[in-house]
Amino acid sequence: MSSVNVNGLRAAAKKEPGFVSWLSSTEADVVCLQETRAEPDQLSAEVLAPQGWHVVLCPAQAKGRAGVAIYARAEPDEVRIGFGEQEFADAGRYVEADFGEVTVASLYLPSGEVGTPRQEEKERFMEAFLPYLVKRRAQVEERGRSLVVCGDWNIAHTEADLKNWRGNKKNSGFLPEERAWLSRVFDEAGYVDVVRSLFPDQEGPYSWWSYRGKAFDNDTGWRIDYQVATPGLAGRALSGGVERYPSREGRWSDHAPVTVAYGIGK
């Protein structure tokens, strides 16, 4: 299973190597995308309906913003858009799809900016989303199912998740209250940060690097893209990590895919 913020699906698809070539080579059965920023009629057939894939595209009502998607080799049993909060119902920030015993979600949590309405939007989203995660875990586990929320959470949880953590203590994405909220997702709601569970003592692996300067070359990144799973599924993670691009020139997004192999059915 893979998750990546594509930073504009049309742009990512036009690059070579780019999203299309990556999708054709990935071994993932499910791919979650964030920040697609595209309407269906703006996408070519090889992106909207690639051979061998079923696509759920959820653009934001505000054109050119946000947008999430799920690409899967199997047709989903059921799809749900949003998480019940009216403000974000058409915001292109959350979609779920059921595949057998597992529900897969693609999340694009607002990025925020301290002292602006964008940060206020992020805080409202977080306030509404945590109770949903608590409720949703209870629902899926009661039915003997699992849930994994893949996506751009736009929060670096600990100092190990951000190279320049000292210089970002007052910036959105590493604010104490944001980090505390993410701790509640893990401690109170009981979800597991799957990649961190696989690499408990490692800095990173980072999944986002600024386009400015030599952030990518120096691996001065942030780990803000996660696969967050209910404990039963997290315990079946066999391997995983970040598919870091081989070079700065070969990047087709400022985020890299986060990929985890699960032993489903084992």
Share of residues in helices? 10-25%
CATH class: Alpha Beta
**Helical segment count:** 7
Q: Give a count of the beta strands, DSSP E runs of length 2 or more.
A: 12
**Coarse structural class:** alpha+beta
Number of domains: 1
Shape descriptor reads: globular
In short:
This is Exodeoxyribonuclease-3. By secondary structure, the protein is an alpha+beta fold.
Can you characterise this structure?
Helix content is 24%, strand content 23%. The protein is α+β, with helices and mostly antiparallel strands and 266 residues long. It has one domain (2-262): Deoxyribonuclease I, Chain A (4-Layer Sandwich), CATH 3.60.10. A six-stranded mixed beta sheet has the order 3-4-2-1-12-11. Strands 5-6-7-8-10-9 form a six-stranded mixed beta sheet. Strand 7 (102-108), helix 4 and strand 8 (146-152) form a beta-alpha-beta unit. Helix 4 (117-142) runs parallel beside helix 5 (176-187). The protein is globular. The protein starts with a strand and ends with a strand. Keywords: Hydrolase, Magnesium, Manganese, Metal-binding. The record marks 154 as: Transition state stabilizer. Belongs to the DNA repair enzymes AP/ExoA family.
